[in-house]
Specification:
44% helix; six-stranded mixed β-sheet; 16% strand; 12 helices; alpha/beta; homodimer; DNA-binding
DNA sequence: TTGTATGCGTTATCAC
DNA sequence: GTGATAACGCATACAA
């Protein structure tokens, strides 16, 4: 555990000279530089970033707070974040909140104490308490995937959930479906809210008003998708199509439909949000509104790094990335 | 950005007293405690862990260095690690090496500088350079998923790859297969080495010697699995069964088989390592030797934390968790 | 080109 | 019970 003093002593120079050589800052004669470098190697000196950070007020650490890294969408986001951060010399701490606001706050408290330089947050709810917590410490935040109130005054990188849901619903309507059920998570998550809004807009436009609205509010999990479909299949009129608010719900929905002895898409059409990574899929089946997960992680991190460097625009950014409609088998063809 | 001094000033006490109140260490009269607590709230004081860590030499941060968080096996491991670490008050930094030793070393250097308390490492190779690097700083390491030489003197948490591969191969042999190809990653990764060893042991036992051995060395990716199967199908004798060394290879293999106009399991049997998370799968199809990914992450982290607490046994642990054989459709039934 | 003094925010040590 | 002092390891400001 050699310190900069030990190196300085061995090289016969002062600590600050060692610091300059190591950080390539300031001047140092070739001879001095070499003596220092030799001493560094001989002692196996590893600079202590803690001490450096305490002085410089920069930890070169970002935090990624999301709901569940196990969801392939977020896994891919995380990879995008880590790649981008790493290229810029930053390390990334990750935290799973499981959609719990209290967990989220606990994590944020610790992260702020750790003096992370910036935070990427997938907020568990649209309430901006957590954001306020972070802003109080003047720590830059970029919100990922979900909206928070504009007055929170924070950068956001997300996709057009409303538009995507609208397109998916339109697709089903155009295929002849009239009884379309939406399988969603609670409305206090903005992606739920927006996707339901898009669904309802498409339904209303098609003259399928409130009486045709069949929305279920569960959670972003396979189990919840399964349950919601069980309920939906028992309701009247029985839906002929499902819109799943995310990938896991879609998988649960497909299972439930099949377990009920029905086929997708022949008996029931099924569309959803978030494509599964191509590396995990043998033959793509789901018709989805695909969000560019990796790109979202990348863009959000780039924005955060720009903020840290003071290179971002003054006004807070609200970046909405395009959704890609991937029409595959699960939506079926025209309803007979 | 109030400091402990500001709080002390406001509460009319000394900084050290504030420290004691905050950390619930040492004595403080109820009255003093209350005055401090009020001041903390009023000033929105957030303790600086950097400074604390500099003194205490504990950062309460672990690092998880793996090859690719995008692989669902590692995603689940990561979740196990984070859950366990978080429960114990630790945060986790994660890094993707993409099987590159040089990336691995770059990361480790940074992590050591950051003074992480411990490291969980899925080593890119069996060479123990990286381990030596870490040990030099007296930072505890637990190696995950893969072996490293025993003389590295390091804790390991992994599964019985050799045994799993043996069982999978035996299964195929018992089903009547004689031409079984193994689809692997390079031998300098211990899981490859072990799985090939298990495959060869089963083959040899069945009197299928070196001449029957068909091993392909690619990478742990879907693309590589696809390519290896393309090659294998062109070789003579054409294999009637494949053993994939991991989940992604298996998926690529299945794709290649189907693209070649063949069916699994009717024309070709296929077995592999690592189950896909149930949340992602609609109807499980692959016969696999399943490793308890979450449990591996959990156990490894527990061991690491025990080391940090000085509660682990002196000798380095070599924990081998059991593999679960999940026989499903892809292995087919007795060869006709 | 190199060195000295000092401070970052906290806590260990020892004193009162 | 509480406080003064120093130290953790490094880098900034200024001086030489």
């Amino acid at each position: 555990m050699a310190t900069i003093h030990d190196v300085a002593h061995r090289a016969g120079v002062s600590p600050i000279t060692v610091s300059r050589v190591i950080n390539h800052s300031g001047y140092a004669s070739r001879e001095t530089r070499e003596r220092v470098e030799v001493a560094v190697v001989e002692l196996g000196y590893v600079p202590n970033r803690l001490a450096r950070s305490l002085r410089s007020k920069r930890t070169h650490t970002l935090a990624l707070v999301l709901t569940d890294i196990t969801n392939p969408f977020f896994t891919t986001v995380a990879r995008g974040v880590e790649d981008t951060a790493s290229d810029a010399g930053y390390t990334v701490i990750f935290c799973n909140t499981d959609e719990s606001e209290s967990e989220e706050k606990k994590y944020l408290q610790v992260l702020l104490q750790q003096q992370v330089d910036g935070i990427l947050l997938v907020p568990a709810s649209s309430v901006s308490d957590s954001i306020d917590l972070i802003r109080k410490q003047h720590t830059p935040v970029v919100v990922l995937d979900r909206r928070v109130p504009l007055q929170a005054g924070v950068d956001i990188v997300r996709c057009d959930s409303e538009g995507g849901a609208y397109q998916l619903t339109r697709l089903l309507i155009d295929l002849g479906h009239r009884h379309i059920a939406a399988l969603s998570a609670p409305l206090y998550v903005s992606t739920s809210e927006d996707r339901i809004a898009g669904y309802r807009r498409a339904m209303a436009e098609a003259g399928l008003g409130a009486e045709a609205d069949q929305t279920f509010f569960g959670a972003f999990t396979q189990a919840s998708g399964y349950q919601m479909v069980q309920q939906a299949l028992a309701s009247k009129p029985r839906p002929t199509a499902f819109l799943a608010a995310n990938n896991l719900i879609a998988i649960g929905a497909l299972k439930a439909v099949r377990d009920a002895g029905l086929r997708v898409p022949e008996d029931i059409a099924l569309v959803g949000f978030d494509d599964l990574p191509t590396a995990l899929v043998i033959s793509p089946f789901f018709t989805v509104a695909a969000q560019p997960a990796y790109e979202m992680g990348r863009k959000a991190t780039q924005l955060l790094l720009a903020r840290l460097a003071g290179e971002a625009p003054d006004s807070c950014q609200n970046i909405v990335l395009p959704i890609e409609m991937l029409v595959r088998q699960s939506s079926g063809s025209t309803l007979s």
